[in-house]
Amino acid sequence: MSLNSAFFLAMYFNGGDKMKISVKIHQKIASLLRDNRIINLWLLVGFVAMNTAPTAANELTLKLKPSQCVAIHQGKTCYVDVELLWQAQDKGEYCLYSSQQTDPLKCWSKSDNGRFEREVLARKNVLFRLRESKTGGVTISKELEMAWIYKRNAKSRSTWRMF
Questions:
Q1: E-assigned strands of the chain?
Q2: Of 15, 96, 134, 157, which has the highest C-beta tally within 10 A?
Q3: Backbone φ, ψ for residue 78 (5° rounding)
Q4: Largest alpha-carbon pair distance within the chain?
């Protein structure tokens, strides 16, 4: 709202007489104009904040192939050859960990990508995690899920029956 439009609104409510604009009305109009500027400023700040996405310091990607291991019977050991590929924005020290052991599977020095292949033997899901080894910071993980062709029944079937 400009000063002129506020002045004409005040004249309209005072019957069109310029001289009858009171000091209170003039102060109210000035207050509205200040409030309008503050609102516009907050709208601008909000718009800029919504359109400015924070960027991650170091974005990691991790791919696991295959993502599932299939065993014949539930609870039996599953055998699969896995391939893990990772990529980072920044070069650094990275280590790959598995939920099957505490020591790292492999570490890379001064690298921004890597590849790891191995046969995995498992009876339950295996979690692979890549993290920066110096800071222990940025972490990404993928899970190798177990699947079965035949699920274990709650009731065991006998090969013979009495009745």
A1: 60-65, 68-73, 78-98, 101-122, 126-132, 139-150
A2: 96
A3: -105, 140
A4: 114
The token pair at 140 is 């990404």
* Residue reference for tokens 């991790």: 62
Residue written as tokens 């601008």?
A: 44
User: How far apart (Å, rounded) are the C-alpha atoms in residues 97 and 133?
Assistant: 11
Helices (H), the chain: 3-13, 23-51
Contacts of 23 (CB under 8 A, 6+ apart): none
Distance CA 83, CA 81 (A): 7
Question: Which residue, 89, 97, 80, 86, is CA-closest to 64?
Answer: 86
The residue with greater pLDDT, 85 or 50, is: 85
Q: Record the pTM.
A: 0.58
Taking the mean position of all CA atoms in its chain, how far away is CA 48? 21
Helix, strand, or coil (residue 28): helix
**Residues 106-150 pLDDT 10s:** 999 999 999 999 999 999 999 999 998 877 776 899 999 999 888
The β-bridge partners of 63 are: 85
> 67-84: string of b/e by CB count within 10 Å (b at 16+)?
eebebeeeeeebebebeb
